[in-house]
Amino acid sequence: MFVRASLYIRPFGLQKRRFASAASEFRIPVIDFSKFRAAKSDAEKKDTANEIVSAFKNSGFIYISNHGLPQETVSKVFQKSADFFKMPEETKARLAWEDPRANRGWVQSGRERVTQSADAAEILALREKAPDFKESMEIGRDWDSHWKNQWPEEADAPGFKQTMLDFFQTCHNLHTEIMRSIALGLDLSEDFFDRKIDKQCHNLRLLSYPPIKRSLIDGEGQARAGAHSDYGTLTLLFQDSVGGLEVLSPHTGEFIAATPIPKVISSTETITPARQSIAFFSNPNFDAEIACLPNCGKEAKYPAINTETYIVGRLAATYM
């Protein structure tokens, strides 16, 4: 599994992608999370916690191994996701994404344009020039009294709803554990973030990327999903064997392939194959304040902001 730290920001404006040479020293660290879970002392936990925080500081991204999610669980989610995207367009259209605060439902290809920019006019221009080549399904916490998930009928997608509900909870639990390790690595109490993330204001995103001519992706500003940073605390990203994710080295400004582990390549010279990924966007509680941590100095570099105000604002600018 690949974990992306939203604390790391990708610079905006790199219209032409630069790829790292084979000699590049930048590597995405692989963290064995079982050491944190099996630790018999606070000191042992702190060792892994320091490793995670150091990796985020230096690369902004990590691979998590031995994370406790059975492969059969992840495989089932991928299969149910694939089945969903195979449904007829008119069936999926009945579940269309409608509101940035809800952030739930099916998003047709070209509707979203992810970017580091937060300027609505600039994003509109980018979308018109180079829309994202992907479709997605957005799922939030299912018990929300106001914002409802858009579920397909059971007859259209057998087992889809329960599979995604179970996976949503599983990912939240893992996110909580990782945030506890981060708290220790930041010299905070292990439960520092617990009450800031317990309302599960997260977003489970299923992603389907159709096959596409390589020449289209190589065009200026073109991508299946443009260069961007995420909005919440952590993103847990699950890739299929095709891969395709690239991360920006904070040291060189070069894009590095985040190769799936293990990896199987299946591509041709002119066609980039279809692929799937699943992202769990972990967010703070929507009523939480995003502010400088208490042990990071007296003067904050950025002003505090409400979580809901920030995330909904970014979503409203990203979708049309």
UniProtKB/TrEMBL annotation:
**Pfam families attached to this UniProt entry:** 2OG-FeII_Oxy (PF03171), DIOX_N (PF14226)
Instruction: Describe the location of the Non-haem dioxygenase N-terminal domain by residue ranges.
Output: 28-154
Q: Does the keyword Transferase apply?
A: no
Q: Where on the tree of life does the source sit, at the highest rank?
A: Eukaryota
Q: Which GO terms describe its molecular function?
A: metal ion binding; oxidoreductase activity
Taking every annotated instance into account, which residue ranges of this chain make up the domain Isopenicillin N synthase-like Fe(2+) 2OG dioxygenase?
217-265
Give the transmembrane region(s). none
What protein family is recorded?
Belongs to the iron/ascorbate-dependent oxidoreductase family.
Enumerate the PANTHER family for this protein. FE2OG DIOXYGENASE DOMAIN-CONTAINING PROTEIN (PTHR10209:SF804), OXIDOREDUCTASE, 2OG-FE II OXYGENASE FAMILY PROTEIN (PTHR10209)
Protein name per its UniProtKB record: Clavaminate synthase-like protein
Which organism is this entry from?
Answer: Gymnopus androsaceus JB14
